[in-house]
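Researcher: We plan to redesign the surface later, but first we want a full-length starting point. Tokens attached.
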């Protein structure tokens, strides 16, 4: 079925001028005929013209798809940079925490050493206290013994001293 230039242009989605530009003079003579004041295009001409625009549309679609991929890649690269930056921050934080852990371990070790030292001092203090207590008891015992002897001597009569 023959279509007018306007009908074919609307079907393809282009202007009438674009159709005229795609068709050369020889093709126009073969496919175009004038009915009244309108040009109509034969079915063979319609197929060829559509194929010319489909090729161009395919190229545009490929360019659009490529542009979308480029935009998507840029977005992915941005995301990759953000992930990289986040990884860097996390690694720094891990290193910082590892240093804190090492400091805490050293502090804990020093505290255990101090506790051991204090236990030793406490043991020494208790031993000194025990020795002092024993010496004091011995002195008290000795003193009591001396007092008892003195008391016995006082109780003896003068003539019993040599007994």
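Model: Full-length starting sequence:
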């Amino acid at each position: 079925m023959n279509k007018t230039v306007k009908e074919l242009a609307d079907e393809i989605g282009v202007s009438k001028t674009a159709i005229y530009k795609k068709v050369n003079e020889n093709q126009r003579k073969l496919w175009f005929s004038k009915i009244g004041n309108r040009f109509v295009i034969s079915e063979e001409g319609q197929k060829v013209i559509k194929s010319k625009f489909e090729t161009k549309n395919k190229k545009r679609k490929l360019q659009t798809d490529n542009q979308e991929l480029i935009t998507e890649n840029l977005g992915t690269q941005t995301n990759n940079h953000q992930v990289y930056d986040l990884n860097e921050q996390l690694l720094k934080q891990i290193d910082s925490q590892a240093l804190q852990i090492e400091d805490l371990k050293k502090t804990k070790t020093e505290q255990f050493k101090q506790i051991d030292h204090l236990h030793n001092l406490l043991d020494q203090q208790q031993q000194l206290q025990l020795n002092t207590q024993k010496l004091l008891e011995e002195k008290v015992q000795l003193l009591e013994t001396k007092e008892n002897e003195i008391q016995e001597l006082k109780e003896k009569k003068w003539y019993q001293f040599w007994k």
